[in-house]
# Entry
Amino acid sequence: MRANLRLILPLLVLAALTVVFVIGLQGDPRKLPSVFIDKPAPAFALPELAEGQAVVTPESLRGKVWLLNVFASWCAACVTEHPHLLQIARLKRVELVGLAYKDEPADTRAWLQARGNPYDRIAVDREGLVGIDYGVYGVPETFVIDAQGVIRYKAVGPVDEGFFRAHVEPLLAQAGR
Amino acid sequence: MLAELGQLLVALALATTLLTSGQQLWALQRGSLDAEAANRVLGAAALSSFVLTLGAFVLLATLFVSSDFSVLNVAENSNTLLPVPYKFAATWGSHEGSFLLWNLMLCGWTAALALASNGLAAGFRARVLTILLLLQAFFLLFLLSSSNPFERLLPAAVEGRDLNPLLQDPFMVIHPPMLYMGYVGFAVAFAFAVAALLERRLDPTWARWSRPWANAAWAFLTIGILLGSWWAYRELGWGGWWFWDPVENASLMPWLAGTALIHSLAVTDKRDALKSWTILLSIVAFALSLLGTFLVRSGVLTSVHAFATDPQRGIFILSMLTLIVGAALVLYALRTRDIGLGGRFGRLSRESFLLANNVLMSAALGAVMLGTLYPLFAEVISGRKMSVGPPYFEAVFVPLLLPAAYLMAAAPGLRWKEDTLRTLLRPMALATAASLALASVWVLWLGPFKWLTVLGLSGGLLLTWGTLDHARVQLGKLAGDPQQPLALTARVRRLGASYWGMVLAHLGVAAFVIGVTMVKSYEVEKDLVMKQGQTVEVGQGWRLTFLGIDRVEGPNYVAQHGVFQLTEGAGQVIYRLEPQKRLYQAGRQVMTEASIHYGLLRDIYVSLGDPVQSRPTDAVSDLAWGVRVYLKPFMVWVWLACVMMALGAFTTLLDRRYRLRKAQAPAAAAAAVAGAGAAGA
Amino acid sequence: MADATTAASAAASALPPGTDLQRLHEITADLRCLVCQNQSIADSHAGLAIDLRNQVVKLMGEGRSDGEIKQYMVDRYGEFVLYDPPFSVSNALLWVGPFLLVVVGVWLARRAIAARAAASPAPGIDAARREALEARYRDSR
# Structure
């Protein structure tokens, strides 16, 4: 019996490794879980893209569920995401705030001009410092923030209607909308 | 046209290997294998698949050199500005192309075995070739179905994306081919092991046949790892040469298994012992080569080296790995008892020391695997993301492998089967004390006493002494008649290439231990800001003067070219060091090219950092530059050591026991074996 | 055009006067570049790495300690951003594992030697027997 165990052991190791690898392959090793889930959204005060408007702050959005979408004119995946954002904007059920990440305002304006503007407000983060405060490491990323100003979910990569159904709708239902 | 032809050739190779191996396996199953006929068919199939795959590879290379951007792989990995040699190298610069190279090498090793194995028993030979052809079929199928390098890009791109600048270096270019020669080479040992299990027996000659192939594979793998490490040293800009990166570890693991294997094969060869363990190692070494392939290409771990990640491809490779290795291990579990236990040996004997080497290698292998895969386990089991870095590996690796150096010093002097403590201790005790003393003096001369440094240096010294002294003793034994001693050259030849190869390789290990100990204990790193005309003291009497920055244009990059002057002692010897910071136009990537003054006792290493303004309003021309200067003692020893190890392994291939000969009359064979037996014992 | 670009990028990445490069290198060598594959932000040329490096410079300028700077990063990016893992109870298996392997290996080896001594009275192989085997092997199926 003991000898049998020694013979089977390599197979057991192989089996264990295979299982772990299969599970590991489902995930993306580069995806980092956010440290801000269920924590208050870090404060900031950034200029609005449209000139002459009030400064954008998370404070001013208290009381409603809102999305912070990190995007840039130089980001290829944002182009994929854009039509979905327009769709989500048309629903008029959440406030959509864009964070123009490490982008020149002129470039951002031109990009939105060409593709349409889904955002209710756009914060200009030229240096990417607010991005760092939010733990942004790639573009696009989307934060779901509830009416109390707490971050409830972070999506890495382009979002679509499925994301809206899965992660935003439940919050809206909770808030009674 | 060429691309489609290339695909066709690969498909033909697949058909050949699949049909041939399938037919032979079927015959084996039914017990109706006609060995002689089978061998002719198998030999022909092996040669055909090699020629076909070579043809496909040549065609792909042609597409690259001619910059045919209608082929997707060429468009993604090459560029018109790329110098021609790199265009050729770009053939294996991507997953698809390098996988074609992998296949080519597998076909090459198989063809070589087919040509060189006429002396092997027919039935056994048939099994080995069948297994190798079956492996080829697997990999060619994978190549065609999910990693086709000949896929078209229509409409054709106007310009390619460019070869990754990291790969645009002459030594980096040969690094993958050498690694693959190693990985794929272990497939031969694997096939030998599985064939033996299929036959349910393991003769002593099995090990003798396996050894040269395992040694050759190990030598190639050593060179491949060396090249990768040396490249990192020169290209990454900050003097590091081994980072315990998952993909580096992926190549280290089969190397450790291979080291254990070549020693275990020696025991099985000379003493018909450790048979079951050697078979398991043969399977494990190849399994780890496949695991390495999986880790690099599937994207399951993060690494600088990883090719573009593709989970679907990862699943495919994983299934192949599981199937191939699983089948072999099942066979092992079922049939290894039929092989028998083999010869016995005492607790203190050459076998037991070689077994101790195996235990340490296996533990080191386990440690590397544990460290590399632990983050993945942690994430899968508990969802937390953590990382295992160099401090872990170094803390664990050194205590495992340093004792090996000490054991290696004593091992050749031990008798086979049984030896006594007295014969071991008498020469060794004195030598060990002397090494420790010498090492202590050395360390104290350089600075404060450091235990680990002393142990490292003394291990290297002891191993050197042990190896050379044993050679001296062996040469002495062959003298014969004291009045008319045998000539030295004749005695050297009598000992055989196998012996001298071992000597060279072990001296290489000693050099490695000394080199690493010195570098890790005494390297000096300086992060400075230098203005034009400034001089700094680097240490040990070396001075570095910053002469200025030029702008230089390369074929496909623009560089900030730093010019430094290095003087030694009283300003006697002058060297020029010219590090660069290159911006490659196509991909907008920045690469640092360090400038290194190599020396047997130390390397002086300079690389450019970032420019620093001395006043916020400085113009570009007034910028001072961040400069990293390293003093790396005995760094060259590390590279030379690897070369020695590889050369030593290659030398063993020259041994007359492995000379190709047709099936001979038993008498002649007996004479050859007797001669080899006396020399090799 | 290329000249202007390299010059501009050179000036753009220029560090403020009086930066302690040694300390900067030490801190950034311990922080992981999150968008690269297994590099520290000291060595990576990625955009985020440069941003984080600049942030470290700024924090150094504000007089923060090494520990505070690292905590700043961990607060935003999690434990993963630390390049070298901390020792902890959950990592125990990692540290104990290799030595366990040696112990097990030695134990198995001793058992194997003992088993052989008990089981087979026959010695290993000598030259004459080997030659006979070889001849027979070659001629057999």
In short: Chain C touches chain A at residues 34-35, 37, 47-48, 51-52, 55, 74-78, 80, 108 (CB under 8 Å). Residues 92-119 of chain C form the longest helix (28 residues). The two ends of chain C are 74 Å apart (CA to CA).
